[in-house]
Amino acid sequence: MARLPLIDPESTTGDIRASFDRMPVKLNIFRMMAHAEANMIPAMRFANSILHKQKLSAVNRELLILQVAQLEGGAYEWRQHVPIALGVGVTQAQIDALERGSIDDAAFNVEERALLAFSKHSVENVRVPESVFAEARKHFSEQEIVEAIFAIGCYMMMARLTEATETDLDPAAGMRLFDSGKKR
User: Fold this and answer.
1) Is 1 domain-assigned?
2) Residue 150: inside a domain
3) Range of the domain at 19
4) Which residues contact 65 (CB under 8 A, 6 or more apart)?
5) Cα–Cα distance measured from residue 115 to residue 151, given in angstroms and rounded to the nearest whole number
6) Which of 40, 66, 84, 106 is most buried as measured by Cβ atoms within 10 A of its Cβ?
7) Residue 165 vs residues 12, 27, 53, 105: alpha-carbon distances, Å
């Protein structure tokens, strides 16, 4: 059971209520985020921009999100993003390798291994060694590298939110919720 009560979407007002009214699924993470009234909508817009507006490919983005969830112990993010990852083209072999923490697995191509090494250092050490950064630069533009950092940071925050508050796991919303964000 969550350490804080989940906000009832029906009890909200204004922009937060309008946001809940647009959601096809009112996930517990959003009901937890609603405690931070000034931050909920900006955080959701930021996450939506990561999911739908970045130059970084959908496959690479989902690999990053799943890796962050695995490294951070983010069970909520893992549950929600595995179906999305599969929906955008991540393979089950890649998901299995991420779950094991095997970023050098043959399931990943050289570009993906470079991105995952970059991400692993970002999460675990904050600073990325020059050799790892240089390898990422071989495969990704400056824009994609900064977008990757934003994606990593956003999902580290989400993992911390759901794990610190012990937010109850929802069934995976999958592509239904993901696709609804494309319109925004």
Assistant:
1) no
2) yes
3) 9-183
4) 77, 81, 85, 151, 155
5) 12
6) 66
7) 20, 14, 29, 33
- The answer, yes or no, to whether residue 94 has pLDDT greater than 80, is yes
At residue 175, the pLDDT reads 79
Find, among 6, 153, 10, 30, the residue nearest to 80 by Cα. Answer: 30
Q: Does residue 4 lie in a domain region?
A: no
Query: Which own/partner contact pairs does 110-118 have at CB distance under 8 Å and 24+ positions apart?
Result: 110/139, 111/60, 111/139, 111/140, 112/59, 112/60, 112/63, 114/138, 114/139, 114/140, 115/60, 115/63, 115/64, 115/139, 115/140, 115/148, 116/63, 116/64, 116/67, 118/145, 118/148
pLDDT in tens, 63-92: 999 999 999 999 999 999 999 999 999 999
Structural domains counted in the chain: 1
Q: Does residue 2 form part of some domain? A: no
pLDDT of residue 100 exceeding 80, the answer is: yes
Q: Give the integer Cα–Cα distance in Å for 12 and 7.
A: 8
Q: Mean per-residue pLDDT for 20-43?
A: 96
